[in-house]
Amino acid sequence: MNYTRVRIYTESDKLEPVSLMLHEKGILGVEIQEPQLYFDLLNKNNPYDWDYIDDSMKELAKVSPNLTFYIEDTPEGIELLDEILGELCAFSVEKVEVSGVSDEDWNNKWKEFFKPTRITERIVIKPSWEDYEKKQDELVIEIDPGLAFGTGTHPTTVMCVKLLEKYIDKGRSTVFDVGCGSGVLIIASALLGAKKVFGVDIDPLAVSVAEENILRNRLDGDIRLFVGDLAKGIETRADIVVANLSADLVVMLSKDIRKNLKENGVFIVSGIIIEKKDEVRDALIKSRFKILDILEDDEWCAMAAAL
Ligand code: SAM
Questions:
Q1: CATH class of 2-113
Q2: N or C: which end of the chain has fewer CB within 10 A?
Q3: 185 C-alpha to ligand 1 centroid (Å)
Q4: C-beta of 181 in contact with ligand 1 (< 6 A)
Q5: Regarding beta strands 238-244 and 222-227, do their DSSP bridges make them parallel or antiparallel, or are they unpaired?
Q6: How confident is the model at residue 93 (pLDDT cuts 50, 70, 90)?
Q7: Element (H, E) at 123
């Protein structure tokens, strides 16, 4: 697939409001270049003493304030771009550059921004192309999401990992991941002690990316992957079902996921935008689940529920 790169040049004080508008339109990865950051570093009143300034920071001094993001080169992507360009009238925008980007450029571009990241007290996500020295007691997930969803750092994933940390224990050691993407929740479950983990995704590409990531992490235990639609055709029961999908898919799944849960099982759901929190909670209660936890992070929410 090809992508369109959009760069918006605007005044420094408009960077934040434009970025907020893009966020509201569903554009999550926005790169902001603000030259003032470099001049602030050089300011002698700066409380920090910089021995070394990276060359990329020096480059920053030469650019005008701008925001860059990428949109899929599809009819839907072009429609969204049209909508965004319309919204820009409300801001003082100096120039908008739009250029095509090939898959290959895009694949390398986003990697520059994905660095080792601690997502919980114990768990660190390490991109496979970065070095990272593991510290004692840390659990390191090595990942290359490729074109599948799942760097592991998205708030919806982080909340699932926090709930897996809470509920995986000796009594609950089998996990079923519905919508496994790049496999990050499968790997997290195995590292947290799950003995048997199985995952499904509707996208065959995601399943093959997950397979590669599972091998990369040299995990113990019984791990299986399937291509499929939600839990259809899967009868195996787990102590924990985790589903980072969307509010609508979670509501659909909650209707018959009991067949995949063992006694004392826990159903962890995420990918729910905050506006749909009540709808999802009510659907879980209607399906006779008892709500155990509700986590919120920015505009997202996740829940854990018991049978
Ligand atoms: N679990 C991963 C994570 O947390 O990083 C990926 C989550 S991503 C938000 C949702 C995943 O669900 C995608 O990989 C998508 O292909 C998959 N998916 C969407 N609809 C599905 C369905 N009906 N059945 C199975 N998987 C689905």
A1: alpha beta
A2: N
A3: 11
A4: yes
A5: unpaired
A6: confident
A7: strand 123-127
**8 Å CB contact between 215 and 228:** no
Q: Are 2-113 and 159-306 in the same CATH fold?
A: no
pTM: 0.73
The residue whose C-alpha atom lies closest to atom 15 belonging to ligand 1 is 179
DSSP state of 305: E
Confidence of residue 44 (pLDDT cuts 50, 70, 90): low
- Give the H or E element holding residue 192: none
CB of 66 sitting under 6 A from ligand 1 = no
Domain extent listing, the chain: 2-113, 159-306
Task: Give the whole-angstrom CA distance, residue 184 versus residue 39.
Answer: 39
CATH dotted code for 159-306: 3.40.50.150
Task: Please provide the distance, in angstroms rounded to a whole number, between the alpha carbons at the two ends of the chain.
Answer: 42
Ligand 1 midpoint to CA 180 (Å): 6
* Residue 20, CA distances (Å) to 27, 87, 100, 214, 271 in order: 9, 12, 24, 36, 20
- The answer, yes or no, to whether any atom of ligand 1 lies below 6 A from the CB of 180, is yes
- 4-36, pLDDT tens digit by residue? 889 999 998 899 899 989 988 888 788 888 888
What is the DSSP annotation of 245-284?
A: S-HHHHHHHHTTGGGGEEEEEEEEEEEEEGGGHHHHHHHH
User: 194-205: per-residue pLDDT in tens?
Assistant: 999 999 999 898
Tokens 């007290």 sit at which residue?
121
pLDDT digits (tens, 9 = 90+) for 219-260: 988 999 999 999 999 999 999 999 999 999 999 999 999 999
For atom 3 of ligand 1, the residue with the nearest CA is 150
Most ligand 1 atoms within 8 A of CB, residue of 123, 143, 149, 160 to mutate: 149
Cβ–ligand 1 contact at 127 (below 6 Å): no
The answer on pLDDT for 174 being more than 70 is: yes
Q: Residue 52: what pLDDT?
A: 57
